[in-house]
Specification:
Blueprint: H1 2-7, E1 15-19, H2 23-33, E2 39-43, E3 48-51, E4 54-55, E5 75-85, E6 90-101, E7 106-109, H3 113-127
Antiparallel strand pairs: 1-6, 2-3, 3-5, 4-5, 5-6, 6-7
Helix pairs in contact: 2-3
Length: 129
């Protein structure tokens, strides 16, 4: 699994899995799995589904203590799900991009693996049923 991620040059923390489904079946099931998320683009020919930013209301940033009325740090993430047609099987990669709010801009941060794993587990469940 790690070799495939390196071959496809996916960012650190990406999850990838191969399924015994043809590309069209996999595409429909992955898209169906993601319908509860705010999808901003779905390109079947390119094999990419992208969500809008999702604010993580449960994330508590303990590194930043609000001083003088400053707002606490907010975290957000988005998914980029990529499908690769492997000729009879399909590989699905879940890439998460994460950011936290800074003083006047968003700062990239290391994605939480459990958030990516949550989506991948839903995809696995749907594609294996």
């Amino acid at each position: 699994m790690e070799t495939a991620a390196k071959t496809k040059r996916l960012p650190q923390g990406s999850l990838i899995r191969s399924f015994n489904l043809d590309y069209n079946q996999a595409w429909e099931k992955v898209l169906e799995t993601m319908l509860t998320l705010p999808i901003i683009s779905a390109d079947k020919s390119g094999g990419v589904i992208t969500t809008d930013w999702i604010v993580d209301s449960k994330a508590k940033n303990v590194e930043v203590v609000p001083i003088f009325g400053a707002a606490p740090s907010i975290e957000r993430y988005r998914y980029v799900v990529k499908l690769y047609d492997m000729g009879g099987t399909t590989e699905v990669a879940v890439v998460q991009v994460a950011q936290r709010s800074g003083p006047h801009h968003w700062i990239d941060k290391v994605p939480a693996t459990k958030v990516s794993a949550n989506l991948m587990n839903k995809i696995i469940s749907n594609l294996e049923n």
